[in-house]
């Protein structure tokens, strides 16, 4: 279990390093020690729990996140370019089917990174979001993101 978690984290942090540095070969002199240090710190702060994460779930989540970031960004840009801003901002509460607290935190962070939504907090398995326009299909987006996160953590939700 620990070896699997270490391999997973090395691969994840290596991928992040590669993306951040644009794959520049010279960056690995600093990158490899940084990745080893990050893995060490992550084991101290978040020890493996025995429940593995799904790599295929993670890949599906990343594609979902990238596509939705672009789509949401275009929606917000279209709203901002309208001559008369007709938005209905508000705070919405969404009861979550996710039970894993780490999964809930990932979901909240993900939704904060998508344009038009900002996570305000989690309380009693309920996510509170500030939205730029309540008429947008926020519920559908939250449920879609929740299912993607559930796949990463191996949770079965309806």
Automatic annotation (TrEMBL):
Instruction: Keyword check for Mitochondrion, yes or no.
Output: no
Identify its membrane topology class: Multi-pass membrane protein
InterPro entries membership: Cation_antiport_E
Q: Does the keyword Transmembrane apply?
A: yes
Question: Where does the source fall among the domains of life?
Answer: Bacteria
Q: Cite the entry's keywords alphabetically.
A: Cell membrane, Membrane, Transmembrane, Transmembrane helix
List the transmembrane segments: 6-23, 30-46, 58-81
Where is the protein localized?
Answer: Cell membrane
In the record, the note on similarity to other proteins reads: Belongs to the CPA3 antiporters (TC 2.A.63) subunit E family.
What protein does this entry describe?
A: Na+/H+ antiporter subunit E
Which organism encodes this protein? Answer: Keguizhuia sedimenti
């Amino acid at each position: 279990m620990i070896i699997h978690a270490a391999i997973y984290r090395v691969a994840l942090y290596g991928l992040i390093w590669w993306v951040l540095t644009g794959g520049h070969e010279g960056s690995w002199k600093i990158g490899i020690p940084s990745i080893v240090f990050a893995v060490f710190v992550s084991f101290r702060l978040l020890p493996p729990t025995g429940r593995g994460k799904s790599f295929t779930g993670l890949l599906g989540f990343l594609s979902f996140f990238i596509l939705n970031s672009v789509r949401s960004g275009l929606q917000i840009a279209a709203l901002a370019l309208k001559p008369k801003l007709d938005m209905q901002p508000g705070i919405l509460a969404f009861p979550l089917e996710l039970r894993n607290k780490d999964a809930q935190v990932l979901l909240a962070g993900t939704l904060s990174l998508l344009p038009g939504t900002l996570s305000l907090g989690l309380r009693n398995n309920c996510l509170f979001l500030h939205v730029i326009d309540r008429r947008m299909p926020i519920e559908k987006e939250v449920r879609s993101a929740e299912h993607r996160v559930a796949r990463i953590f191996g949770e079965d939700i309806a």
